[in-house]
């Protein structure tokens, strides 16, 4: 398994994507990308020796079933997949991609439900949203033993520091000011 650490920049637009191509970041996360643009963007990223993680649930025009994910894997050459769906994470693992299970921590019921999914699917990483609750980052890590990525509502350097203090191994953010940390 790879070792995702530090800031993981999440791209929402082409301007930020272009900035990241010349950055020191090894990984780029694609959010809200159109399926028709994805293969080209991955190709450009690979030319610059970047590794690409995509949020499969947010790819416009992609159906998150077995056939859609199979297409994604074969046609884009991504390095990893992020999803809230256990079946998508299972397919990523089956195809030897980095598998990141995204969890929304809305309440105790959601937490317990998500922990059961994680136990069944066994992703490589868990991304917790919102990522600004260090206590929950620690609790999920202790319950699963898996590395935690904090994401969502990360707005300040202090939010990043608190996520790391809570035990996160990495932080995802689309705030390009925080990519410099």
TrEMBL record:
InterPro entries the record matches: Aldolase_TIM, GlpP
A single GO BP: positive regulation of DNA-templated transcription
Keywords: Glycerol metabolism, RNA-binding, Transcription, Transcription regulation
Record flagged with keyword Repeat: no
Entry-linked Gene3D superfamilies: Aldolase class I
Any one GO molecular-function label of the UniProt entry: RNA binding
Domain of life: Bacteria
Keyword Membrane in annotation: no
Pfam families registered for this protein in UniProt: G3P_antiterm
Protein's job: Regulates expression of the glpD operon. In the presence of glycerol 3-phosphate (G3P) causes antitermination of transcription of glpD at the inverted repeat of the leader region to enhance its transcription. Binds and stabilizes glpD leader mRNA.
Protein name listed in UniProt: Glycerol uptake operon antiterminator regulatory protein
Organism: Salirhabdus euzebyi
